[in-house]
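Input/output pair, single chain:
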Amino acid sequence: TENTYSRLNAGDNVSVTATFSESVFVTDDDGIGVDNASGTPTLTIAVGSDNRTATYLSGSTSNALIFQYTIQSGDNDTNGISIRANSIALNSGTIRDASGNYATITHNSVDDNSSYIVDNTVPSLLRVVPTSSTSTSAISQFKLPATGGSVGSLCDGNCYIYITATWSENVIMTGEDNASSTVTIVVGDGGEAVSR
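Output:
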């Protein structure tokens, strides 16, 4: 589940549904319902090159069992989460039908799913440079302010300087409540902070 961005991050939950041919009942290692996490069926998912354990969450008495895993801070998968064949483990629990028949838990693999990409890699700022200006002078197009003895047409209050910040990956900039963001830069020899 990820409501803000199209990537899964630490703390997001991944739910996997295993569908059976009929309603099944799940028990843990004591044979009575599911009240013991250590003896509960699990399903292994592949997050990048690592195996992660999704634990049984709900679905007993139906034909669809739900397993859930919470993304951890070190998880990354640029291709999307996948599931290897035969990834359900009973862990001394049981999955049976109403007649007591044990369910067949073998299954095919599920390829990388690009809808479940995991990204916990923090973007880094590579460079910040002034790239253009509305000043008419190439000599002083980035000079502030428009006073003093500098040569050329300086960029004053009626001029714009465009600054490009390059990141290690695509980023989304938002302010509070997803409003327009504000970036503060330092200009001039005196280090004056200007927000734009």
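The chain is about 0% helix and 35% strand. The mean pLDDT is 81.
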